[in-house]
Amino acid sequence: MTESGLVVVDKSAGMTSHDVVSRVRRLAGTRKVGHAGTLDPMATGVLVLGVNRATRLLGHLMLTEKGYDATIRLGVSTTTDDAEGEVTATVSAAGLDEATIRSAAADFVGDLLQVPTAVSAIKVDGKRAYQRVRDGEEVELKARPVTVHELTVHEVRVEGETVDLDVSVRCSSGTYIRAIARDLGARLEVGGHLTALRRTAVGPYDLASARTLDELGDSFALMPIADAARAAFSSRDLDDDQTADVRVGRALDIDLDGLTAVFAPDGEFLALYEPRGETAKAVAVFVQPAR
């Protein structure tokens, strides 16, 4: 059986996240593969996959900070808030000056209430929002709190009646870059959508550690689950008695600052623990009890 660990994929355009999962299942020789955070087919970049026991890490990785490079086009609105949708409105953006654009973009940094794009994967009464849209239904999603830690506008280019912005975004999980493009266009009263998106990081995993599917096909390798856990979470090395307690899911009398990966004296990754009152309790245990 394939070992447990993570695969950091540099996804190419045109593939769904499920396409990538299917390919990695074949390469890893196991059905037990999942991913931490969907990337749209148009998007490229970092997609973190877990194999076997490491799939249990993915829910926690989905909550980590993410980084993106994107291109926003002002002056055109679409049904999907990106280039894959149908154009719904065009308004000349050629009269916008760069200072006005940069000032408006700065308003999207901080704690925001963001309405996700209607074609998101959010479930509405048990059905994906994008499927409801495809079925011809009107979908209205509620605004959700997100945090944009940084939004840097790089180049601003006038392209006829439209304006293209190259931006970098560092944000909380659950932030839709398409929604930022839509809302920035609305703020400037010309409409907007996303024409390119590349995820550059999921937590500590970035493009430097990512490999394309072709590269993985030539030489498939996992990031061991212990290395993956040390990279993504605070870590604590335990003694033998504490290790025995972890193996049966007992609370530990240790001080933790937050979600922490705990390790046996030999370096084996044991579990994720978090502070609860005056002790630390297991969130997820990754090892079998000692026999």
Largest sheet: 10 strands, mixed
Helix content: 10-25%
C-alpha Rg, in Å? Answer: 22 Å
Low-confidence segments, given as residue ranges, are none
* CATH topology-level name of the largest domain: Pseudouridine synthase
Number of β-strand runs = 18
Fourth-level CATH superfamily of the largest domain:
Pseudouridine synthase
Shape: elongated
**Secondary-structure content class:** alpha+beta
Task: Report the span from N to C terminus.
Answer: 21 Å
Mean pLDDT: 91
Tell me the domain tally. Answer: 3
CATH architecture of the largest domain: 2-Layer Sandwich
Q: Report the sheet-strand fraction.
A: 35-45%
Q: What is the highest CATH level, the class of the largest domain?
A: Alpha Beta
Count of alpha and pi helical runs: 8
Order of helices and strands: EHEEHEEEHEEEHEEHEEHEHEHEEE
Family: Belongs to the pseudouridine synthase TruB family. Type 1 subfamily.
Active site: 40
Domain tRNA pseudouridylate synthase B C-terminal: 178-221
GO molecular function: tRNA pseudouridine(55) synthase activity
Structure description:
The protein folds into 3 domains: 5-64 and 203-226, Pseudouridine synthase (2-Layer Sandwich), CATH 3.30.2350; 66-202, Pseudouridine synthase (2-Layer Sandwich), CATH 3.30.2350; 233-285, Roll (Archaeosine Trna-guanine Transglycosylase, Chain: A, domain 4). The model has no long low-confidence stretch (mean pLDDT 91). It has helices at residues 17-28, 58-61, 98-106, 129-134, 177-187, 213-218, 225-232, 240-247; strands at residues 5-11, 33-35, 44-51, 66-74, 76-78, 87-90, 110-114, 123-124, 127-128, 144-159, 162-171, 192-202, 205-206, 223-224, 234-237, 260-263, 269-276, 279-285. Strands 1, 2, 3, 4, 7, 10, 11, 12, 13 and 14 form a 10-stranded mixed beta sheet that branches. With 291 residues, the chain is α+β, with helices and mostly antiparallel strands. The relative contact order is 0.18. The two termini are 21 Å apart.
